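Narrative of activities, Objective 1.

The group set out to show that a structural description can be obtained from nothing but a protein's sequence at a throughput compatible with the screening campaign. Below is one input-output pair from the validation batch, recorded exactly as produced.
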Amino acid sequence: MRNRLTRSTAFRLAGFVALIVTLTNVAIFTALYFSISEQMAAHLRAHVDEVRKTLIDVEGEESEGFQELTTMVEGHARVAQSDEDIYFLIDQTEKRLAGNVASLQRFDGWRTIPWEDLKLVGNWSSHRASDAVIGRWTTIRGGYLFVGDGNGDIRDAQRLLLKGLLWGIGLSVVCAVLGGWLLGLKAQRRIVEIEEALDAVAGGSLERRVPRDSGADDVDHVAALINSTLDRLQRLFANLRQVSVDIAHDLRTPVSRMRQRLETVRAGPDCIDAYKEATDSSIDEIDRIAETFDALLRISEIEAGARKAKFVDVELNALLTNITDALEAVADERQHRLHPAQQTAGPVVVRGDRRLLNQLFLNLLENAIVHCSDPADIRVELAVADGHPVVRVRDTGPGIPGDEREKVFRRLYRLEKSRTTSGNGLGLSLVAAISELHGATVTLSDNSPGLIVEVRFTQS
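Output recorded for this entry:
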């Protein structure tokens, strides 16, 4: 259980948010720490410079000025014993004249001197929060003057910043952990819902779906994709069950006929002609069954998309002309009139498999010729709409009822429920599979009377 907790989205999100907030706070407080410390050090140096210039002005140009400076430095040193200010005056031979330190080596520029390196003079009370003195030497007319001040204010500010940093990090980490944990729990709950839905589907409940959230976040987008996949999976299983039932139904009739025919021949008198007739009839039934399975395998191969590698530029103008010319005699035999294909002025080209496209339009025209019982007009139109090729097959036959137009694309589905007429119900299924392979859509509409089949290519 603990291992699952540490691997959960809630735990990891909370830890990640806490880490980011902590690093951000550390970066902000580090910048503030050095910035404020530098500003306060600059103020301290400015204060030292102001005191130093005041003392230098006391020396002036008068002969007694240096003595007056010595007296003032000594007075400042006595007052400053408990106040961190450091004064030290030496003559040109570096002899100590006044100050609150016994000795101090001269140096150039500013320097930070730890308290333990200073040889203090007198009884000093414990200094403030400082741990060092910031000061510099100044060359004067009678010798050298050192003025310094403790860095107590800087240290106080630094300690305050560090305390604020610790409190800030502590509070922000607590808030980040709580916030991250709550957000993570929500995400974890969504993940659990997805797991439960997928487990239910794996157990056979194909109607189960992942609950959607009104937030429309990334997880909700994933849930929508999963639901779409499950919808398609459910349709595929439904189609598979329907195909299985239709195959069983389609095979039962011819198999029963073959059995009845063979039993009749076996029960009757021995006659070579009767045996031959029964055998020929049975072979015809087997051939029709084999054609059905061949068509099913062809549809499966097309839906797999393996033939896309053979796509070439196909000119629809010549393709439709050849098909209408080939089927004109067949239409005449059934007393239908198949008009020449109506085409646009220029060539219309699509990327596709020539044989499959030929099969697609051949099936559409053959369906129109076979299912139009009365003498009918059949027309083929080729046009370009919105930059996409469109092929329409119109007939004046009985048409297809509106509630049946989606069903006729299912495999082995036939409007004639008794299945006594010829055909296997795979013609329009093959049309739909070829159209989908070529990025085309097939729609059926009313021709009043008759049917309009439109194939619209949407991919170039």
